[in-house]
Fold this protein.
Amino acid sequence: MATKRIEYMCTHCGKKEIRFVSLGKPLPGKCPRKQGNKPHTWTVNRRLEN
């Protein structure tokens, strides 16, 4: 059976994280490009199947 993963990317700083589908989006954290210690904005960059 294929392991399904999703690569998430922050729309502001470009940071990427790969997570399993069952885990959902990564924790917000702090985005270095946003003013005032605001969190990352995660969007789906691509879906991986291996």
In short: The beta strands are 4-10, 16-20, 42-49.
